[in-house]
């Protein structure tokens, strides 16, 4: 319970940052910065699967409520939360995940952190943008949007994580 | 129960994720824009359509055997009906004396009774080949019934029956003999297997004056008390003169594929017993002029079946 309250400020900060700052950034038609999955990325590796899904659900609902979006962020963050452990195992290895680690540049290195974030945020962007468009009519434009949004979001998320990591 | 618990323990994250995701998508579809609502309903409908289609395909695959058995039974019934019509057509030759009144048409039984069966054992690699079918005396199968393929080709005859199974002598048995003739002509010969190829049999003693060509069809004659007349055996592949030059020996390519026997039709000749009895009594020189049926006592018909 204590740990839950430890993460509460970060949860609120990420949700507010997404809805108040990144949703209002005008980076062009094909760039939608989605940085809030950084909160899911920064959770400890030994978190239980149901806890991970629960946090994903809460984060998605919170961002949806703040952004006035009916469930789109929830769909994407649930899928990201579900994939998170697998991606972390893929990037840092099964043993490291089992021993327990908080994915950050200081613990697993900048390169692995950036790789982990990029994969996680790309999956999040694919889910989000696919459910937003729900058509294959403009598949190339959708792909372009996914690539640009993922790249920009991953950079922002990495910078944010680095900032939090340094402050620790 | 233990296994279910183990399965649930392993896959609960996936199940929980699917449950939450479905709820989220449902919420998105019902509270989102009209476009998203319509698109999600459309995708869900086509996905469910695909699932239903696959389920229907699996269901129809699972019922293939039952459908096949129903079709076989229907085929046997139609063959029985066809045999009645054929017999009626043969019997309905106009009388020479037009004054003679026509006998009223009686309820006719088919001269050949067809029963569908499935092959449960088969051999083709020996000199004496047999196959077993899954019908026996309980299904009305009797010894010396003909066995034909579904397309009417000769396969063999029933050698022995139990209540639920019958063993049949295959055409690919060196002890098998029947008579056959070339379709459309009167020349006939004796059909047997020489044990060389499972694809061909020999038809010997065909008159050397017969006009036989490669590709001619060989069918059974009406001389047999086992096989119905006109059942196909195969087609002429080669025509060789016999050693003494008095006859032709025909190499006949079989119509039936004995390596792929699955379903067969057993054809029982209803009058076979009566015919054999009469023929044997004449051969033994003990045939007596039959008395009218009205004068016979019940013991006359049941006792002394061999006519001796």
In percent terms, what proportion of residues of chain A is strand? Answer: under 5%
Largest interface, with counts of residues having CB < 8 Å to the other chain, equals:
A-B, 17 and 18 residues
Termini separation of chain A (Å)?
21 Å
Could you report the average pLDDT of chain B, rounded to the nearest whole number? 82
Reported by name, the CATH topology of the domain at 109-269 in chain B is Thrombin, subunit H
Average pLDDT of chain A works out at 90
Amount of helix of chain B: 25-40%
Number of helices of chain A: 8
CATH class of chain A: Mainly Alpha
Distance between the termini of chain B: 72 Å
Low-confidence stretches of chain B: 95-106, 291-308
Would you identify the regions of chain A where 5 or more consecutive residues have pLDDT less than 50? none
CATH topology (fold) name of chain A = Arp2/3 complex 21 kDa subunit ARPC3
| Number of DSSP E strands of chain B | 12
Multimeric state:
heterodimer
- At the fourth level of CATH, the homologous superfamily of the domain at 109-269 in chain B is Rod shape-determining protein MreC, domain 1
CATH architecture assignment name of chain A: Orthogonal Bundle
Structural overview:
The complex is a heterodimer of chains A (168) and B (308). With 168 residues, chain A is an all-alpha fold. Chain A is 76% helix and 0% strand. Chain A has a single domain (2-167), classed as Arp2/3 complex 21 kDa subunit ARPC3 (Orthogonal Bundle), CATH 1.10.1760. Chain A has helices at residues 2-21, 37-41, 49-67, 72-92, 94-99, 105-108, 110-133, 139-167. In chain A, helix 1 (2-21) runs parallel beside helix 3 (49-67). The longest helix of chain A has 29 residues, at 139-167. The mean pLDDT of chain A is 90. Among the domains of chain B are: 14-62, no CATH class; 109-269, Thrombin, subunit H (Beta Barrel). In chain B, the strands form two sheets. Chain B has a six-stranded antiparallel β-barrel. Chain B is α+β, with helices and mostly antiparallel strands. The chains are: A mainly alpha (168), B alpha+beta (308).
């Amino acid at each position: 319970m204590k740990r839950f309250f430890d993460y509460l400020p970060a949860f609120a900060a990420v949700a507010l940052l997404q809805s108040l700052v990144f949703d209002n950034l005008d980076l062009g038609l094909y760039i939608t910065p989605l940085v809030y999955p950084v909160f899911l990325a920064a959770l400890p590796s030994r978190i239980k699967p149901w806890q991970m899904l629960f946090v994903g659900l809460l984060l998605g609902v919170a961002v949806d409520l703040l952004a006035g979006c009916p469930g789109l962020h929830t769909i994407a963050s649930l899928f990201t939360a579900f994939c998170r452990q697998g991606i972390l195992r893929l990037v840092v290895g099964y043993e490291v995940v089992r021993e327990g680690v908080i994915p950050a540049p200081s613990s697993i290195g900048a390169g692995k952190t950036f790789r982990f974030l990029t994969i996680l945020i790309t999956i999040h962007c694919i889910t989000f943008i696919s459910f937003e468009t729900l058509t294959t009519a403009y598949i190339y434009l959708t792909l372009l949007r996914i690539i640009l949004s993922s790249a920009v979001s991953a950079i922002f998320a990495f910078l944010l994580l680095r900032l939090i990591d340094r402050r620790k | 129960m233990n296994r279910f618990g183990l399965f649930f323990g392993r896959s609960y994250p996936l199940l929980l994720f699917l449950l939450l995701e479905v709820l989220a998508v449902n919420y998105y579809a019902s509270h989102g824009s009209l476009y998203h609502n319509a698109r999600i309903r459309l995708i869900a409908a086509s996905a469910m359509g695909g699932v239903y289609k696959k389920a229907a395909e699996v269901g129809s695959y699972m019922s293939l055997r039952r459908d096949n058995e129903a079709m076989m039974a229907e085929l046997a019934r139609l063959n029985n009906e066809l045999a009645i019509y054929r017999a009626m057509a043969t019997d309905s030759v106009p009388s020479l004396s037009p004054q003679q009144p026509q006998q009223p048409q009686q309820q006719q039984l088919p001269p050949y009774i067809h029963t569908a069966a499935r092959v449960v054992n088969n051999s083709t690699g020996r000199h004496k080949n047999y196959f077993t079918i899954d019908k026996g005396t309980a299904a009305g199968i009797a010894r010396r019934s003909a066995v034909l393929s579904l397309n009417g080709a000769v396969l063999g005859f029933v050698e022995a029956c139990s209540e639920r199974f019958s063993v049949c002598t295959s055409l690919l048995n060196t002890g098998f003999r029947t008579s056959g003739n070339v379709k459309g002509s009167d020349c006939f010969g004796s059909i047997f297997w020489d044990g060389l190829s499972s694809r061909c049999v020999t038809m010997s003693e065909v008159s050397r004056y017969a006009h036989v060509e490669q590709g001619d069809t060989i069918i059974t004659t009406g001389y047999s008390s086992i096989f119905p007349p006109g059942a196909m055996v195969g087609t002429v592949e080669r025509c060789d003169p016999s050693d003494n030059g008095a006859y032709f020996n025909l190499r006949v390519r079989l119509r039936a594929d004995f390596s792929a026997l699955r379903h067969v039709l057993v054809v029982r000749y209803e009058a076979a017993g009566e015919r054999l009895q009469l023929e044997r009594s004449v051969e033994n020189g003990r045939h007596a002029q039959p008395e009218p049926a009205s004068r016979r006592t019940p013991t006359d018909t049941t006792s002394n079946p061999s006519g001796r």
